[in-house]
């Protein structure tokens, strides 16, 4: 495909779930002019992250801008509630909850609030859901099927009252995460450029894409995502021993869509250099994302 | 449009009409819906439902999927080395919810804690990969009733980009009570019978089904399959129509698909409509078709009265059915259609007619305003 592709803006939203549900309506109201009514938490976290990303770009999106939402579990909470409502409590299914339980309805509300009418996907690839969404978006942007792409990943923390057995604290799932990037080939000053997105059945194959010297004098960073075996992690450490480590594990230890969060956090940090992010599925397959954050010219001095 | 042809090389299917392509054609030819009933969970009575009837309940959905995928792979005549290189593209809206419901009920009836239910949108694709030794990438599309339409579109895109040598596209949907009661609570289920585009239409009947196709650039090795080639497609969203797109957006996606296929409306031999049987849905589709085809609308068919609405699976399921029909040079009647709706002006076939090779338009529209239109060339 025709890469690199320019990333104009990014945003990451992370909320640790407490005893009381977060006030997402208030947060969303601060970033989105017309907040849709009767939306659930999964839709809210998608809207918050995506609108933060679009607001950072500072301009309206082209109507044909594609939306590519990667998610490992979609709107699992409402589906679980519906199952309980119908099968256990023998109550009529809530029609709003039912329609909102489709994973693609988050993309629908994104399209509605951003005036978009192009492609709009909710896609999953288990451990690689963000990478899959990014891969398809790059394909569409590279051949101008869409003029720009809003690419993100979101998964909701699961309320233990619904989904966790008492002996499984599920602490790592008690987070709502939504991370987004706007891929815009016409952006004059990109925050980063995507060099390649690659899936392979061996770590060695993905690693071979990281050509020595490709980044010039810029620092190179390696981010190790989830799903890699200890052996694969050791192999990476040896293969890229002269690369700096970029870790976001302290912020988001283990979550299906953590790749999106980690990559966005690297871009937000604004460190010039190349990032290679590699995630695995624990069974050999790997997905690599390589991007470069360019040196930023100093802003022009204000006119006196 | 790329020059690289994307052909259907193998096919497997199981619906309420039976297993295999000939069973679909026989059922569609009879125009006698194979509808049964399932008991309601809430309140007395039953729902009409087009059940597969293979003895697999919700907990057997993986077995059913694996049977259909095995049929498709055998039909394509793939070696294990070729199977290993497949990419998997699944389109489904309820995922494996039927299986989860069985597990949930077992737990609330037993002593297990009913809260622990593992979720994962990619589980079906992962299970297919594990069962058949497939090492390629897998994607699961969940865009409501256009899900497997998007799966077909992106399988073709990755094939044309040279990223894959072959793709396995699976549309699958299974009995689950959340969907049945959800459609019921939205008052979208028919209280009579499905009558797509009929003035008296009052809703949809749900069904289950799984279809799998192997796509690739080579001609099918199985001489019994009609020569079927993906020509082009489009996908869009109507951001003002969460349950139903407008006629304008419907027309837009059809026009874009024709453009992608390099085809004019006059070249379309027949339209396999989404034909869902709801008042608003059929109105939008009918008016959208008339915007595109004006006074030259080719024959229109809807398979849903025979199959039930198989939701996220319907694009692949109904494409397979259309292939089977064209193979036998048949365009079947749309059961239930009797009285044209003057507010639409689009009439599906009242009686079966002959059809020859040519380009076919296949529409699929879903909740969340998500639309796909596909153009296939099919030769008997």
Core attributes:
heterodimer, A: 304 residues, alpha/beta, 10-stranded mixed beta sheet, 10 helices, 23% strand, globular, B: 380 residues, 11-stranded mixed beta sheet, 3-stranded mixed beta sheet, 11 helices, 16 strands
Average of pLDDT of chain A: 89
Flag low-confidence runs of chain A.
Answer: 163-172
- What's the number of helices of chain B? 11
Question: What Rg of chain B, in angstroms, do the CA atoms define?
Answer: 19 Å
Beta-strand share of residues of chain B = 15-25%
Percentage of residues assigned to helices of chain A: 25-40%
Average pLDDT rating of chain B: 94
Which spans of chain B have pLDDT < 50 for at least 5 consecutive residues?
A: none
Binned strand content of chain A: 15-25%
Report, as a whole number of angstroms, the end-to-end distance of chain B: 24 Å
What is Rg of chain A? 20 Å
Tell me which protein chains meet in the greatest interface and how many residues each side has: A-B, 63 and 58 residues
Span between termini of chain A: 46 Å
Number of strands of chain A: 10
Largest sheet of chain A: 10 strands, mixed
Major sheet description of chain B: 11 strands, mixed
Number of helices of chain A: 10
- What percent of the residues of chain B sit in helical stretches (DSSP H or I)? 25-40%
Overall geometry of chain B comes to globular
Order of helices and strands of chain B: EEHEEHHEHHEHEHEEEHEHEHHEEEE
Instruction: Give a count of the beta strands of chain B, DSSP E runs of length 2 or more.
Output: 16
């Amino acid at each position: 495909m025709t890469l690199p592709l320019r990333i104009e803006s990014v945003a990451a939203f992370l909320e640790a779930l407490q005893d009381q549900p977060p006030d997402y309506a208030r947060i969303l109201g601060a970033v989105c002019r017309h907040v849709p009514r009767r939306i659930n938490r999964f839709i809210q976290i998608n809207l918050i992250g995506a609108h933060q990303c679009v607001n950072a770009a500072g301009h309206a999106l082209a109507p044909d801008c594609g939306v590519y939402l990667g998610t490992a579990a979609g709107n699992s909470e409402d589906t679980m509630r519906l199952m309980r409502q119908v099968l256990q409590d023998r109550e009529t299914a809530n029609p709003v909850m039912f329609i909102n339980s489709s994973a693609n309805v988050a993309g629908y509300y994104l399209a509605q609030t951003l005036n978009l009418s192009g492609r709009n996907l909710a896609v999953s690839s288990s451990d690689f859901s963000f990478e899959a969404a990014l891969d398809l978006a790059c394909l569409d942007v590279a051949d101008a099927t869409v003029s720009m792409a809003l690419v993100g990943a979101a998964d909701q923390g699961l309320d233990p009252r619904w989904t966790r057995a008492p002996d499984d604290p599920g602490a790592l799932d008690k987070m709502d995460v939504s991370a987004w990037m706007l891929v815009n080939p016409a952006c004059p000053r990109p925050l980063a450029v995507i060099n390649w997105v690659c899936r392979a059945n061996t770590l060695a194959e993905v690693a071979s894409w990281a050509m020595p010297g490709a980044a010039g004098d810029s620092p190179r960073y390696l981010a190790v995502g989830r799903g890699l075996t200890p052996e694969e992690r050791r192999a990476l450490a040896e293969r890229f021993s002269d690369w700096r480590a970029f870790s976001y594990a302290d912020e988001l230890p283990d979550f299906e869509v953590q790749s999106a969060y980690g990559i966005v956090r690297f871009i937000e940090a604004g460190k010039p250099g190349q990032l290679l992010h590699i995630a695995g599925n624990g069974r050999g397959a790997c997905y690599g994302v390589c991007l470069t954050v360019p040196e930023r010219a100093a802003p022009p001095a204000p006119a006196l | 449009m790329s020059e690289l042809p994307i052909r259907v090389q193998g096919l497997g299917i199981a619906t309420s009409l039976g297993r295999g392509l000939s069973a679909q054609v026989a059922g569609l030819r009879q125009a006698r819906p194979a509808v049964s009933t399932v008991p309601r969970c809430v309140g007395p009575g039953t729902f009409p439902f087009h059940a597969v009837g293979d003895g697999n309940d919700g907990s057997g959905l993986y077995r059913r999927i694996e049977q259909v995928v095995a049929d498709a792979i055998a039909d394509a005549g793939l070696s294990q080395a070729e199977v290993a290189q497949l990419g998997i593209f699944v389109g489904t809206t309820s995922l494996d919810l039927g299986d989860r419901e069985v597990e949930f009920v077992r737990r609330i009836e037993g002593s297990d804690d009913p809260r622990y239910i593992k979720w994962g949108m990619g589980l079906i694709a992962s299970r297919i990969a594990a069962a058949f030794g497939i090492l390629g990438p897998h994607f699961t599309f969940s865009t409501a009733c256009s899900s497997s339409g998007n799966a077909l579109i992106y399988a073709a895109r990755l094939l044309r980009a040279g990223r894959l040598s072959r793709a396995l596209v699976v549309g699958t949907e299974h009995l689950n009570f959340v969907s049945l009661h959800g459609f019921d609570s939205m008052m979208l289920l028919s209280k009579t019978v499905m009558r797509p585009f009929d003035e008296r239409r009052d809703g949809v009947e749900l069904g289950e089904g799984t279809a799998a196709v192997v796509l690739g650039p080579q001609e099918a090795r199985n001489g019994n399959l009609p020569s079927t080639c993906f020509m082009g497609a489009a996908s869009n969203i109507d951001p003002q129509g969460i349950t139903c797109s407008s006629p304008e957006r419907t027309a837009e996606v059809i026009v874009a698909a024709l453009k992608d296929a390099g085809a004019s409306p006059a070249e379309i031999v027949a339209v396999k409509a989404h034909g869902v049987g709801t008042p608003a849905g059929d109105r939008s589709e009918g008016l959208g078709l008339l915007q595109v085809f004006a006074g030259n609308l080719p024959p229109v068919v809807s398979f849903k009265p025979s199959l039930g609405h198989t939701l996220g699976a319907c694009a692949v399921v109904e494409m397979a059915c259309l292939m089977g029909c064209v193979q036998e040079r048949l365009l079947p009647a749309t059961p239930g259609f009797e009285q044209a709706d003057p507010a639409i002006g689009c009439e599906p076939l009242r009686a079966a007619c002959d059809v020859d090779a040519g380009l076919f338009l296949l529409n699929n529209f879903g909740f969340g305003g998500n639309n796909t239109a596909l153009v296939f060339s099919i030769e008997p």
